[in-house]
Amino acid sequence: MTESQELYNDIAALVKGADLELVDFGVSRHKGSTQVRAVVYRAGGTGIDECSKAHKLIQARLDVVFGEGDFQLETASPGIDRTLASPREYGVFTGRGVRIVLDDEDVIEGILASFDGVSVVLTTADGDRIIPIERIRKGKLDYSQEGR
């Protein structure tokens, strides 16, 4: 396991204890400065309070890892139209509206019912669709699908 994967797992467990999911986490170094970006999510809604809570938890942990004040941390919510960056995110956003573009350019919209690591189950107006993850070219959260 790489150092960055260990840090990701550590931060994910930390925010999980605060009832949040770590959606995305990245560390970049530019000309002597370290930039850290964390995207957190809570199924009931992710607002400034959740981001602030996560920021405090993550900052305290990174102070130990990088040294106090040796990094800049940005904590954000995923936003209502996030492009899903990894297959793991299909599990994180279960219950949310999505718009999926397949490898044949077909577009499917609906509610993300489940993800088992291999296939996505999408509830559409025409019923449930099982979509193998390797067929998905692009997925994006789509708030307009929710509440229908």
Write a structural description:
With 148 residues, this protein is of the alpha+beta class. It has 2 domains: 3-76, RimP-like superfamily, N-terminal (GMP Synthetase, Chain A, domain 3), CATH 3.30.300.70; 88-145, SH3 type barrels, CATH 2.30.30.100. Helices cover 26% and strands 39% of the residues. It is built from 3 helices and 8 strands; from the N terminus they run αββαβαβββββ. The strands form 2 sheets. A 5-stranded antiparallel sheet has the order 7-6-5-4-8, with no helix packed on it. The protein has a 3-stranded mixed sheet with strand order 1-2-3, with helices on one face. A hairpin with a 3-residue loop joins strand 5 (107-115) and strand 6.
